[in-house]
Amino acid sequence: MPAPRTVLLTGAAGQLGSMMRGLLPRYGYELRLLDVRPIEGEPDAVVADLADREALREAVRGADAVVHLAGISVESTFEKILRANIEGTYHLYEAAREEGVRRIVFASSNHAVGYTPRPQGDDPLIPVDTPRRPDTFYGLSKSFGEDLAQFYWDKHGLETVSVRIGSCFPEPRSVRSLSLWLSPEDAARLFHAALSADGVGHTVVHGSSANTRLWWDLTSARALGYEPRDDSERYAAELLAEQGPLRPDDPAHARLGGHFVTDPPLWP
User: Fold this and answer.
1) What is the residue extent of each domain of the chain?
2) pLDDT score at 265
3) Cystine design at 23: which of 6, 99, 188, 238 (Cβ 3.0–4.6 Å)?
4) CATH of 6-261, one of 3.40.640.10, 1.10.10.10, 2.60.120.10, 3.40.50.720
5) Looking at residue 14, what is its pLDDT?
């Protein structure tokens, strides 16, 4: 598949979307922006809810691919997650199918496998085919999205790369995120690889930088052409001094999903 030029970026006003608005054009993409709220300085952005199926069809029309970041990004009530993340993702896939878009990059999450024990000692890295164990309604919605992507590939030939994003911030914020951190620059490299690789079908990849304390196997991501360049280790000494090391007896430290497996915060 040749590198697509016009890419619809959903959730473009969000934290990750805002970072990708600045980084993805460096790879030659012309971004078409969509969010449920207006984006300052972007008068041509599409302002629409994922429930608006006609607006979604118009937004995807003529696009070469979609990077789907829209939705609720933390835990919430099931009703809110259902509407935004489950039904909304279905509406996006239907719009893409109806308009002939051939590829979607879907923002999945580590919370789709949040109850997976983290590697300790000489344990091997977590493989991408580890059984899904969602830790929240949010993680459950990401599991649904991965299954929806597989269905649309098998049924309709619509390709997807599902990226299980770890923790994507300019800097890691916790000792746990030293193992899951995906730098914004590496996120753009990974999304570019997902958009431009040949014959992805439905591929699930782990979204992390090349961290010294990495928990995830990045083999399937590297197979797309992803070459991470950043490492969270330069932040380790400061975070360890502030927070102390991870404790194996603490469920929030022993599981991949962190505090989402213990006391997930509700969306306001």
Assistant:
1) 6-261
2) 55
3) 188
4) 3.40.50.720
5) 95
165 class by beta-carbon count within 10 Å (0-12 exposed, 13-18 middle, 19+ buried): buried
Give per-residue pLDDT as tens, 93-148.
999 999 999 999 999 999 999 999 999 989 999 999 999 999 999 999 999 999 99
- Catalytic one of 93, 138, 152, 226: 138
Look up residue 39 and give its two tokens. Answer: 């984006």
Planar angle of CA 7, 48, 197, nearest 5 degrees: 20
**Quick one: how far is CA 226 from the chain centroid?**
15
Q: pTM for the full model?
A: 0.95
Do the Cβ atoms of 220 and 128 come closer than 8 Å? Answer: yes
Tokens of 153: 């590939």
- In the residue annotation, 138 being an active-site residue is answered as yes
